[in-house]
Design goal:
By secondary structure, this protein is of the alpha/beta class. The protein has five helices and eleven strands. Its cofactor is Zn(2+).
Length: 192
């Protein structure tokens, strides 16, 4: 049975969330930065099968080298030319017990992806959308508001309205009204 835990919960450092997903294929979704993610992972699992990166901003990949060397694991991401990415993501990736559809969602960063498992009704949204209908920054290099809005719309087209969990790159995961949270983020991105 798949279990999802945020290893960065409670960390007081500039980092992203880091989701440890256990099951048939144990994975980290993002590695975070500026905290001992290796120690946190080692206290829970003996090994990792893969590391999936939602995008390559430093707060999401700062711990990549430590995770690679400790667990002898490859990273997968959208842009294999980036030093943090060993292998390019395909159309799907197995994380835990489920196959996740990979959706390219630029606007916050060109190599940004969201991951969605229809069977589990779970989405890893990276920095595209957040709890309370917030949306990713577009004032950084490679950011673009119109592109971000199109990406939010594409995510809404992909996920089911009965989405069970929305795991975001920062802040709390959303387990109540996850689909509506994505809708609100799209509305907010259009207003500001």
């Amino acid at each position: 049975m798949t279990d999802i835990e945020n290893l960065a919960a409670g960390v007081q450092a500039f980092t992203s969330n880091v989701f440890l997903v256990t099951g048939e294929r144990t994975a980290l979704v993002d590695t975070g930065a500026n905290f001992d993610v290796v120690g946190a992972a080692e206290s829970r699992v003996d090994d990792l099968d893969t590391v999936v990166l939602t995008h390559t901003h430093r707060d999401h990949v700062g711990n990549v080298d430590a995770v690679r060397s400790t667990f002898d694991v490859e990273t997968v991401g959208y842009d294999p030319s980036h030093p943090a990415v060993d292998t390019e993501l395909g159309e799907t990736v197995q994380v835990g017990d489920h196959d996740f559809t990979v959706l390219h969602t630029p606007g916050h960063k060109d190599d940004h992806v969201c991951l969605y498992a229809p069977a589990a009704k779970v989405c890893f949204a990276g920095d595209l959308v957040f709890a309370d209908g917030a949306f990713g920054r577009t004032d950084l290099e490679e950011g673009d508001r119109e592109t971000l809005i199109r990406s939010i719309d594409a995510l809404l087209d992909l996920v089911d309205p009965d989405l069970v969990a929305l795991h975001t790159g920062h802040g709390p995961s959303v387990t109540d009204g996850a689909y509506e949270t994505i809708e609100r983020a799209g509305q907010a991105a259009r207003r500001f």
